Amino acid sequence: MGKIGIYGSSFDPITNVHLWTASTVAHRCKLDKVIFLPCSSKRKDKKLNTTDEHRWQMVQMAIQDNDCYIADDYEMKQEAWNVYTEQTLKHFKEVYPEDEIYFIMGADLLEDIGAGKWGNSEALVRDNRFIVMARNDIDMLKVISHSPLLRNHDDGQTFHLIDKGLAMEISSTYIRDEFAVGGEPRYLLPESCYQYIKEHQIYK
User: Fold this and answer.
1) Which reactions appear under catalytic activity for this entry (predicted)?
2) Looking at CB atoms within 10 Å, which of 32, 62, 116, 201 has the fewest?
C-alpha cells in the first residue's frame, strides 16, 4: 500500500513554490506520489488568466524530471456541474484502490470547508484524509475546534497539520503581475515555464 497526495490548484502558472511545497509535504508525510491536479476552467468560483492548454503544458514541463510527481487532467475534463473535490477524491480512490489518498490544501481552504462553503462538504470530510498547510497565521487547531463539521470528524487521522516551515509568499498572482508590467519573475518558476510564457506571450 502506498500513500498518494492530490495537489489541486489553478497552477496559473505553476511556480517553484508549488514544487517545493509538494516536495516538502511528500517528505514529511512519507508520500510515494504527488498528483498535480490543475482545476477546471469551467468552475464558477475560479477566474483563470490563461487557457487550460497553456496551464496543462506548463505543469507537465515543470514536473517532468521528478518520477514522484504525476500530472492529471481529470478535473479539466469535467463538466462544471460535476467539479466537486468530493467527487474528485472518490475518482482517485477508485483509480488507486490499494493506496491511501490524501488531499493537500492550505489552511484557508480548511476554513472554507469548515464553514460549509464547499460542495458535498459533509461527505468530503467524512470519507477523506487531508494534509493541511499553515497559511496567513491561521490557527488550524482553532479552525477545527470551531467547526462542528470538522471537529466531529477529527479522529486523529483525518487531518495532518503541517504548521512549521511552509511559507507561501510567492504566488502565481505575483508572477502574473510581473509579466503584465514587463517585470522580471525569472527564477520564481521553472525555467522551462518561464521560457514558455515568454514565447507565447502569456499574461501580457
Assistant:
1) nicotinate beta-D-ribonucleotide + ATP + H(+) = deamido-NAD(+) + diphosphate
2) 201
* Contacts (Cβ under 8 Å, ≥6 apart) of 77: 40
Q: What is the rounded CA–CA span in Å between residue 202 and residue 204?
A: 6
Residue 152 has which C-alpha cell?
466531529
Burial 40-49 (b: 16+ CB within 10 A, else e): bbbeeeeebb
For the segment 132-181, what is each residue's pLDDT rounded down to a tens digit?
Answer: 998 878 999 999 999 999 999 999 999 999 986 665 567 899 999 999 99
Going along the chain from its start, the domains and CATH numbers come out as 3-167 (3.40.50.620)
Give the Å distances, CA to CA, from 125 to 24, 74, 89.
Answer: 24, 21, 11
CA angle at 64 for the pair 50 and 202, rounded to the nearest 5°: 20
Residue the block writes with cell 479539466: 76
Helix axes 52-63, 191-200, angle to 10 degrees: 150
The one-letter amino acid at 16: N
Amino acid at 122: E
Q: What is d(CA 144, CA 110) in angstroms, rounded to the nearest whole number?
A: 8
d(CA 94, CA 9): 21
